[in-house]
Design a protein that fits this description.
By secondary structure, the chain is mainly β. The protein has one domain: monomeric porin ompg (Porin). The chain is built from two helices and 15 strands. The protein has a 15-stranded antiparallel beta sheet that branches. A hairpin with an 8-residue loop joins strand 12 and strand 13. The two termini are 37 Å apart.
Length: 271
């Protein structure tokens, strides 16, 4: 087990021990409804996801990269009409040396903070808009060493058992090491979920990226795939777990992975 995977196990175990010791967070919704809330980035729901992403076939030597994202989501009510939903992503990365068949760097990457403003009373289309900020506090070799800023937009619909929508942002560098290249990157995640009454659900939520600074033919990473998940309880504490697999139909020539395996465990705290 590499260091990043070990960190993931420790964080998940600590989260389970800490949260399940507090029975105050009782589940009020049924499993299907809670699953839909967990899939809605703008839900009035505090959550703590720990997401492990393993990328296989990376670079010319078919190396493996591992990224653990700890991404707490905390909503706030701003009066009776507007909610503020914050998400902070802390990526713990094991990055292989792509020019070799051995060697890697492990540590924290750049932290990404997003804050969406969203109507407190949602209509048929649920939406949110706000800034995304990239904080260059990662370890050398894992950080862009650039401050980043840009817009982020989320929109979704939730008809019946479905949760369908998309999240998109674009980050431009606004400061940092002048000797390094500029950052101009888009991230687009569409999500399609179908929820069953038992708490099981089918899901497809690939993350598409475009590096606008890269050469033509090396800008896009486009994964296709999906998987399944389930809402469950340990005592009275609800959790959401899912796994998905993706094949990259487009990827940078020398630095892209062939496919990705994702596992996520998410502690849920209905307000």
């Amino acid at each position: 087990m590499n260091k990043t995977a070990g960190t993931f196990v420790i964080l998940v175990t600590t989260t389970l021990m800490t949260i399940t010791a507090n029975p105050a967070h009782a589940l009020l919704q049924d499993d299907q409804e809670l699953g839909k809330q967990a899939q809605n980035p703008l839900a009035s729901l505090i959550s703590l996801p720990a997401q492990n992403n393993t990328n296989f076939g990376l670079g010319p030597n078919d190396r493996t990269q591992n990224v653990v994202n700890i991404q707490p989501v905390v909503p706030f009510g701003l009066g009776s009409k507007v909610n503020l939903i914050t998400r902070t992503i802390f990526p713990f990365i094991t990055q292989p040396d792509l020019a070799s068949t051995s060697g890697s760097t492990t540590g924290l990457g750049d932290v990404l903070f997003t804050a969406w403003l969203s109507p407190a009373e949602a209509g048929k289309v649920i939406w949110g808009v706000g800034p995304v900020i990239s904080l260059p506090i990662g370890k050398e070799g894992l950080s862009t060493e650039k401050w980043g800023l840009g817009p982020s937009v989320v929109a979704l619909i939730m008809p019946g058992p479905w949760v369908v929508g998309a999240l998109v942002n674009n980050v431009w560098s606004v400061g940092g090491d002048e000797n390094l290249g500029d950052v101009n990157q888009m991230t687009l995640q569409y999500f399609v979920n179908y929820n069953f009454p038992s708490g099981w659900y089918l899901s497809s939520a690939p993350i598409i990226t475009a590096n606008w600074e890269a050469d033509d033919g090396n800008k896009w990473t486009v994964p296709l795939g999906g998987g399944f998940g389930k809402v469950f309880r340990l005592g009275s504490q609800p959790f959401n777990a899912n796994t998905q697999a993706f094949y990259n139909v487009a990827t940078p020539d020398d630095a892209g992975a062939d496919w990705q395996l994702r596992f996520q465990l998410q502690a849920l705290f209905p307000r």
